[in-house]
Amino acid sequence: MTREEILARIRTRFGEDIIDFFDKSPKRVYIEIRPEAIVRVGTYIFSDLGARFNTASGVDSRTSIEILYHFTLEDINLLISIRVKLDRSQPEIDSLSPCLEAANWVEREMHELLGIDFRGHPDLRRLLLPDQWPEGVYPLRQDYQEWDEEAVRDRGV
Amino acid sequence: MKETIIPIGPYHPLQEEPEFFTLTVEGERVVDIDVRVGYNHRGIEKLSEMKTFDQSTFVIERICGICSTSHPFAYTRALEDIISMGVPRRARYIRTIIAEGERIHSHLLWLGLAGHFLGYKTVYMWAWKLREEILDVMEMLSGNRNNYAMFKPGGVRRDIKAADLPVALGKLDSIIPTLEMLRKAVLEDPVLHARTQGIGVLSKQDAIDFSALGPTARASGVARDVRKDCPYGAYDEVEWDMIVTANGDVFDKLVVRIGEVFESVRIMKACLLNLPRGEIDAGIADIPPGEGIGHIEAPRGETFHYVRSDGTNRPVRHKVRAPTFMNLPTFKTTVKGATLSDATIILAAIDPCYCCTERMAVRDPEGRTLGDGYDLIRLSQEKTARIKRKMGNK
Asked: Do B91 and B104 have their domain in common?
């Protein structure tokens, strides 16, 4: 399939779920979808189109929590980024992990660093942050405040 | 049978990426594995938000000591993606030369350690001796053995002098015979076959499901390489082959990495010979608002950077995904069912920052220590010695 055919398929199949379609360059496409559709869209691109799941980037944009799921279609050299915007006060979304093993750790990482709740994730234990890190403090949020007084003291700031 | 938990890790002075493995074993056999990372989580993504775009180039070069150039490479490409601009041809060639030199020394480092774990001290010494030659070339070209600081958004910071070209080419030619000998010694050794063939198999389907990367995926028959799939640098202008094997065991990962060292020498030589004249820097002044993605093939697989800019001189968000993050979860399938003496080499086979395997401690349920990491390497080395004796090859 060519690039145009694949993008046309995504458009017709998920027409109602797509909020914004940004064809940035020959190698990059950004598609914003409704958060409810992420499992449908994600599994279609991964399983049916045979894409590779690169990773997902969680972003705190101050107005909302964004997640960009990056997929690479290696045959046509195209990187598709699926964007969802979540409510910042209570960010939650269905987990891709049950049908996409590669998303398991990626979602665990976003869960602890950005405080996004992934519904149906098999294992949301801590992966990166230390055990003494307080609950409910998310370091990649824009309003993150240093909580460890010893760390502040040792840095001398 | 009674299950025993074996904690491995998390710290070792050699490794730059400490990991903590919890192996559940029944007797000799591993039945489950749990991995915990983050012991060296330095918050570089957050730190990068506080640095200017130019400063970040140097910060992220410190993410990894072995594949130090892959991160600035991906990051500068992400910035260039925001602006949608290309890089001068000479700069692309220099970038490729540095990236391939890094791949050669990284793979040789792994080969040496794999030899060490298996009880092949000669392989270990030879591989690391060869690696020194490459590090000398890198020092001559960039001024440093590691952390080359060659990259900047829009090009490279330092040109390659014409006088250095013949010296570098001579060095590359001189390592080929030793490499050939090493390849022959490693790939034709019956004991090594016995230790690595059919061990730690990652099936093709699992490699796809886990989105495994780099040599880990290519050894399982997944022909996936960012250099071929999404060409950058000078990779689409020089001749080279992607090394893909079918079995997915430790032996195939060895084959892929050794083959790639030869290909990297080939790419490096082609780039040095055909180094085009011209500018080395496109001169990027400001980064406009927008978002960009840069991904490149590091020695262990794809390194992925996502950068968002709001028009100031600092990134709003800088996401870094290193290849080991995708490759580590494959342990769930490769280690299960293996024996303890094979676990060392399986854990080392994806080329994580291996050294955690030296920090194992075997305890019984009451907490008594039955053996530590050195015993585990000893177990692995003894198995090799046993096979050698059986084959009458002392």
From this structure: yes
